Amino acid sequence: MSNLPDPISEVSVLSTGSVVIRPEHVGPTRLNLYVWLATSRRWTEPLPINVYVIEHRDGMLLFDTGQDRASVTEAGYFPGGLNGLIYSRLSRFSIAEDQTLTAGLARLGHDVRDVGTAVISHLHQDHIGGLPELGHAELLVSRPEWDSLTKPFAEARGLMPKHIDLPGLSWRLLDAEPLGDPAVAPFTHGHDVFSDGTIVLLPTPGHTPGSLSMLVRRPGHRPLLMVGDLTYDDELLAAGQLPGVGDKRQMRHAVQMVNELRASLPGLVVLPAHDPTAAHRLRDALATGLARPDGDSDNAFRPAR
Prior knowledge:
single chain, alpha/beta, Metallo-beta-lactamase, Chain A, seven-stranded mixed sheet
């Protein structure tokens, strides 16, 4: 299997600044969101705002687009009133001039116009910040996530439509479809981006109604799973612990599904959007293949037929 041609030439990560959040946000916590949001006095250490970059033979793909620098330079970026107070209690951002999506891609040797596709794990501000730079690309988001934009109290739920539904953007709304791939059990539905089994989007709702995770499989390499904000720490996820923001029932089910996926895909590397160790773990995963019982390096990946 390691002799199969690899359609992916590189997987990289860049960060569009950093964010501090409440420890209860990371979890686990038994407190209601609004209780800990009102009472917490502590902040985490700065966490990265990760964007994952996949160079596929059919085009460059991003998983998430980071935080917009305008959020720290423009006074009217966030809502006012009570919603604005909630946003200020929830997170604080630090984004330098050279930490835009375009600048980060340039450091990797790419022009932002090289991006053909961007997958949006969910529509919170720190995942959609690069949208103004991606008018040329196809943007993939789950239909349930997009539909949540038009439901009442969008800003109170962490969504800012004025920064999402921008003129000139090309959105593609995804419905989960049968995958027919037992290697990704217990997941049975999702979306195969390039129809070759290498990049598969999996529904992991809970943090938001339509949150997506992205599975990356390559011959001879450990499989990778980018999970957005399903967790902020893979060790917490592996222990079944939930973060403090989202629908607990849905998150618990999604966490269980991801942990069962580890059994289907030995060596799976889970990469959260804000895990400060993610860049190091990605580098280590790319440097080492997955050993088979016979000693050969392989990850049991078989392209879709």
